[in-house]
Amino acid sequence: MVRGTTESGIGQFGGAPASVEWGVSTATMPLYWMYEAVQSSLGPARAMAEAGRSYFKSPGNPLSQTPWGRKVSALCEVFERATRRYGKPEFGLPTTLVRGQRVVVTERAVWSRPFCNLVHFDRALPRGARKQPNLLIVAPMSGHYATLLRGTVDAMLPDHEVYITDWTDARVVPLSEGAFDLDDYIDYLISIFHFLKGDCHVMAVCQPAVPVLAAIARMEAEGDPYTPRSMTLMGGPIDTRENPTAVNQVAIDRGIDWFRSNVITMVPWPHPGVMRQVYPGFLQLTGFVSMNLDRHLSAHNDFFNHLVEGDGDSAEKHREFYDEYLAVMDLTAEFYLQTVDTVFIRHALPKGEMTHRGKPVDCSKITRCALMTVEGERDDISGVGQTQAAHTLCSSLSDDKRAHYLQEKVGHYGVFNGSRFRAEIAPRIHDFILSNEPGLAREKPAAKPAPQPAEPAAPVAAAAPDLFPETPAADSKPAAAKSSESKSSAAKPAAASKAPEPEAAEHGPLSDDLTRIDGVGPKLQQFLNEAGIFHFWQLARLTAEERAALDARVTPAGRISRERWVEQASRLAKADQPG
């Protein structure tokens, strides 16, 4: 899509652009004004409903104790909440737990531009506390505020210095601040990376996966020293041709002209952004709700019943969810239309046709910034495979700088929030960040001599007696009896110091491809080989003590248990058995 100007909305990248005309149709131009008129006309009715709710809920009113009184009060609250305009929620994260100690968290805007503030969750850590990695969470600019990622921030706070992009509602940005499109979004990201001096790891949730990948590709191509150390892309539309969803199909079927003619309107007075062309939040919210209308109607019916029955906990959960869900922001027309065209219609990034300020976005230039992708098995917004496609594009990254994880039994929201995110996804992201953070990753143990290729490996307990000092060796000799042999056998590889057991030969080749285990790359396979493990069956037969001892030596520690290497190895061993 061609804009009338190539200037950016951020000072250090060329100054604020002039207003850009995107061709608002006569049908959509008055739409926002009509919406504001309806909101104003409902004001008195909402005030009456709120007064009625208070009256019929007051303990001094005898009717409040009757079924009829509770129903009237509940009806008034449902009406008031269904017709109000919801403002931007707060993050509401006053404290967090760091290494067993509860510390105070203070929100601070440390970088600011017209369309975005960078918020730092400053933790009051005790003096002398060890440095933790800087994590930049790039929130989606897709309708909801950054507070939608409250749970994401909360889960990452104990182990990281967390920053988040807090995007500004376009209707409060004066037209004099200029336009803001996808190129400007990428400029903002590059500026933030410069502000953090590259000492950061990036987590992009959903929509920003594309601009984050593009920004890092451009920085790597230019040899920018402030390139982030790693990026984690979560449920993002990198290549929407992979397993397309209903959302993707709508964009393809309707085309960019339909969106320009039917969803773009102008901000009315008295908002500060009056006359700015936007994709308004209320239209986005209509789309969100219409996708699952039955579910929302049922939820409000249940809310009414909870109020009548006096189920305060259930009613409060409903309020908390919809206070967030119904709070939406306007997007600039240029950003929305360029994103739809570039990402969902032309598939410019995976085709190698995407540009930024006229320069190609070539992901094969990425060699320093590690890549992790996360997807949800039941994601109906970004289908399985769409985010993983980033690995194909980043063809120059080494295997030890890439990882992919598919979370079972979660939808789009569950990829970055909820119990499975906290228990399964967040620890993996933390491990990935640590493995790419200089000075924080554990030092690997000194390598042992490789086993002789002509002899099969013995079982792991015998192959690496130093790894499991609490486990008796296969010959069951006392420690004192074996100490005299240690010097003479020190120069020999542990796996070759014993004759192979007969059943070792029954498991096929001399070595299995351990990289078939999800989470094991060439370097980790080498680590396992150095520990005397060459076969799936050896991993599958580890005892709990042996697994714990091996887990302590992996960088970062705990991966074997979290990624279920033993269980995966067991399945692979069975699958490889003949017959």
From TrEMBL:
<dbReference type="InterPro" id="IPR010915">
    <property type="entry name" value="PHB_depoly_PhaZ"/>
</dbReference>
<dbReference type="InterPro" id="IPR029058">
    <property type="entry name" value="AB_hydrolase_fold"/>
</dbReference>
<dbReference type="Pfam" id="PF06850">
    <property type="entry name" value="PHB_depo_C"/>
</dbReference>
<protein>
    <submittedName>
        <fullName>Polyhydroxyalkanoate depolymerase</fullName>
    </submittedName>
</protein>
<feature type="domain" description="PHB de-polymerase C-terminal">
    <location>
        <begin position="235"/>
        <end position="435"/>
    </location>
</feature>
<feature type="compositionally biased region" description="Basic and acidic residues">
    <location>
        <begin position="500"/>
        <end position="516"/>
    </location>
</feature>
<feature type="region of interest" description="Disordered">
    <location>
        <begin position="468"/>
        <end position="517"/>
    </location>
</feature>
<feature type="compositionally biased region" description="Low complexity">
    <location>
        <begin position="472"/>
        <end position="499"/>
    </location>
</feature>
<dbReference type="InterPro" id="IPR009656">
    <property type="entry name" value="PHB_depo_C"/>
</dbReference>
<dbReference type="InterPro" id="IPR051321">
    <property type="entry name" value="PHA/PHB_synthase"/>
</dbReference>
